[in-house]
């Protein structure tokens, strides 16, 4: 007798949902390297938050190491997503570790402010279907898809638990976002009541969040140093220039454009100092970002001003221009649109001699006359003091004469021509 292929309605719905979920998971897990955006829209994965990593054990004069040892402790990171989606994936990193590290557990939930979470939204993060993962030295791992629907410009909380002594050397030092540390396993805790001593402003072992999208999506990677990273912007307020650019885009209706931050405070093109140099990290932090379509490059002032601090590491204007030229060529070869930002003035800052301004003027002239890029963002012209062009406008100065305040970062965001990000 021939067996009927009929299934009751409820069972058919269950099977259909299972198959859809399985197809999504297989599609996501099949994405790797730089092949995230496939011809099948439902398999498209895009970056919605990034934090560029550095080696916290690399101590240099004037750059304090930010290595952290956790032992039966939990740390809760709060992240603002650029774009939402039906599912997300986390990337954990031990890129600069010398030994394997074990994450005893990771959970993600919607943030309710401070260290608080919506407990009902908390999800266990798994790797190869396991809630615990060991990451080899020098490696990074993507989690399996996490069914946590999220909205654009919303915040999530990622809580990590380390059961035994764990040295986390791979960090993003300048988070400008409070991370909360508490004793014991607090993965599902509604909040982590923390004293000042139990708070940090760095991201430990967490380098990216990807979201799924069935729509055509653009990803803008802002690449640079502390000015991109948001140094001296208000903590927990998302006032870095990339955040304020993201706000502008969303307000203008560009709801399917993601803006992620590839800045590292103190970074230089030529020499390592805080984080690997720009030449060395450009591929990882820009070219390999899932779904990248555009990049805004603003890097070079530390190569010039740090000549005063480290005379043996002095670089020429030609070297800085050559580094920019190489980066532009690599991006263009990948089909990524490039916007170059002119370098901001810094007269009056402790390590910004007149020679740095002279170099800056040469580099900015080259940038303004560059015909190989898709656009110029003249940060210098909108940020300078009209009465003293070598210095920052006092209205936009955070006080150190090098980094903008929140208003200044807003002016930088407003200087970006949104049509260039189409």
Write structural notes for this entry.
The protein has 422 residues and is of the alpha+beta class. The protein folds into two domains: 45-207; 217-421, 3-Layer(aba) Sandwich (Rossmann fold). It has nine helices and 25 strands. Strands 4, 7, 8, 9, 12, 15 and 16 form a seven-stranded antiparallel sheet that branches. A five-stranded parallel sheet has the order 20-19-21-22-23, sandwiched between helices. Helix 3 (241-251) crosses helix 9. Mean pLDDT is 89; it is low at 1-41.
Q: Which descriptors would you attach to this protein?
A:
25 strands; seven-stranded antiparallel sheet; Rossmann fold; globular; alpha+beta; 24% helix; disordered N terminus; 422 residues; five-stranded parallel sheet
How many structurally independent domains?
2
Biggest β-sheet description? 7 strands, antiparallel
Beta-strand residue fraction: 25-35%
Percent in helix: 10-25%
Regarding quaternary structure, what we see is: single chain
CATH superfamily of the largest domain: SGNH hydrolase
CATH C-level category of the largest domain: Alpha Beta
Helical element count?
A: 9
Number of strands: 25
Q: Which consecutive residue ranges, at least 5 long each, have pLDDT under 50?
A: 1-41
CATH architecture of the largest domain: 3-Layer(aba) Sandwich
Overall outline? globular
């Amino acid at each position: 007798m021939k067996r009927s292929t009929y299934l009751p309605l409820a069972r058919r719905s269950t099977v259909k949902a299972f198959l859809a979920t399985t197809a999504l998971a297989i599609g996501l897990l099949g994405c790797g390297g730089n092949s995230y955006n496939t011809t099948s829209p439902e398999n498209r994965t895009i970056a919605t938050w990034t934090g560029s990593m550095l080696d916290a054990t690399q101590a240099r004069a004037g750059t304090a190491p930010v290595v952290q040892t956790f032992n039966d402790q939990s740390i809760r990171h709060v992240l603002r997503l650029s774009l939402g989606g039906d599912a997300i994936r986390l990337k954990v990193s031990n890129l600069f570790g010398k030994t394997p590290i074990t994450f005893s557990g990771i959970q993600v939930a919607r943030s309710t402010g401070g260290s608080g979470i919506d407990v009902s939204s908390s999800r266990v993060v798994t790797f190869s279907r396991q809630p615990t993962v060991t990451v080899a030295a020098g490696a990074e791992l993507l989690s399996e898809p996490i069914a946590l629907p999220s909205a654009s410009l919303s915040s999530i909380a990622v809580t990590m638990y380390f059961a035994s002594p764990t040295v986390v050397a791979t960090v993003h030092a300048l988070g400008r976002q409070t991370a909360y540390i508490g004793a014991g396993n607090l993965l599902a805790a509604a909040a982590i009541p923390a004293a000042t001593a139990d708070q940090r402003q760095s991201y430990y072992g967490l380098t990216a969040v990807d979201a799924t999208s069935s729509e055509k999506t653009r990803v803008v990677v802002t690449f640079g140093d502390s000015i991109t990273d948001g140094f001296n912007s208000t903590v927990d307020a998302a006032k870095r220039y990339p955040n304020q650019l993201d706000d502008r885009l969303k307000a203008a209706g560009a709801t399917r454009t993601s803006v992620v931050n590839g800045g590292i405070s103190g970074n230089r093109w030529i020499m390592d100092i805080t984080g690997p140099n720009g030449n060395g990290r450009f591929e990882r932090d820009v070219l390999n970002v899932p779904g990248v379509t555009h990049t805004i490059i603003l890097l070079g002032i530390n190569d010039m001003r740090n000549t005063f601090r480290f005379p043996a590491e002095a670089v020429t204007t030609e070297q800085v221009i050559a580094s920019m030229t190489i980066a532009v060529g690599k991006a263009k070869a990948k089909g990524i649109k490039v916007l170059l930002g002119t370098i901001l003035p810094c007269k009056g800052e402790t390590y910004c001699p007149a020679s740095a301004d002279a170099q800056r003027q040469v580099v900015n002239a080259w940038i303004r006359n560059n015909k190989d890029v898709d656009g110029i963002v003249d940060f210098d012209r909108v940020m300078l003091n009209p009465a003293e062009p070598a210095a920052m406008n006092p209205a936009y100065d955070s006080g150190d004469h090098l980094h903008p305040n929140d208003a200044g970062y807003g002016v930088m965001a407003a200087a970006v021509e949104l049509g260039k990000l189409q």
